[in-house]
Amino acid sequence: MEDSSQSRVMLWTLPSSFASSFVNWIGHQSPQGAPKVQIVINPYATAHDVGPERVRLPDDVNKDIIDKWNELHEDPNGNDGLYRKPIKDADCSFKFAKDLLEQEFSDKKVVFCSDLSYGISGRFDMLPAGYLHSFLIRNPYKTLLSWRNLMQKCLGMDKDSFSVLVGDALYPVLEGYKKCWELIEHLQSQGNKVVVVDADDIQQDPGAILTKYCILVGITFPESRLHWDVGNESMRDWISGRSLLSQDGDNDDTFVESTSLPPFQPAPKRHDVPFDILSYIDASMPYYLKMHAMRIH
Question: For an engineered disulfide with 169, which of 76, 151, 207, 262 has Cβ 3.0 to 4.6 Å away?
């Protein structure tokens, strides 16, 4: 049973949507040497991607994509260098993820879990009790282009060759927008409060938007800090799943090396986006716009 004075917050999102930076900001609000924020990263995505009940990818996903994803999953101790408490693949059932989040964490004032929305899809019975649910969204032009570039890099393919595979490679992101919206609809149907925040708004006015976010989700910090020191020891208490979507290495660099939120960059113009993802951007946009209309601003 959670402490009634303790704030518990889920941040649901999708790949390449600013979540690493957002989590880093939350995790570094604790004073040095006195971590009061428990960070948990991707337990449900881990259960979905690599746990004992993992959900198989669609049969029509290209074999090159599957082979690369399997390669990214090979090391069961992938996060040991950064976190003291990695979630092992073999342990991470959906019930394990739920039980993990429902632990007491009695020495913490805030329990904050960031996860990928598709990870809980079809398993709403496994949503953790006692949490307020929030959603981090990002313009599909930015998210889909970022994920496309990442997957092309991971596969080591030139742009033209990768173009043939782009639909399969974008599958997690395409599902992400839809699954975020389906989860919002489910939560609202159950009478749950939902808070939506857009990455662009955070980057353009971090002080105002993050203050509003914290008020709405019930998080209180003595002093909200937009800059922090490298290597905060509190990171060693973070609990991280090893989902497919955290294995590119960029997230580790974000957590270890950054000392502030990255600056705002405008979305690319349509004519500057590779043609092979335009239809996927168009398919994602209706879900994004529904969530965008609900956002903090």
Answer: 151
Helices 171-189 and 140-155 pack at an angle, to 10 degrees, of 140
0.90 exceeded by the pTM? no
Question: Which residues are paired to 10 by β-bridges?
Answer: 113, 133
* C-alpha to C-alpha distance for 157 and 260, rounded to whole angstroms: 32
Smallest CA-to-CA distance from 42 within 127, 137, 93, 114 is with 114
Q: What is the pLDDT of residues 5-18, one digit of tens each?
A: 899 999 999 888 88
User: Tokens 């930015």 correspond to what residue?
Assistant: 142
Q: What is the pLDDT of residues 44-95, one digit of tens each?
A: 988 888 788 987 665 556 666 666 666 655 544 444 444 446 787 788 899 9
| Secondary structure (DSSP) of 85-140 | EEPPGGG--HHHHHHHHTS--TT-SEEEEEEEGGGGTT-GGGPPTT-EEEEEE--H
Task: Compute how many other C-beta atoms are within 10 angstroms of the C-beta atom of residue 191.
Answer: 6
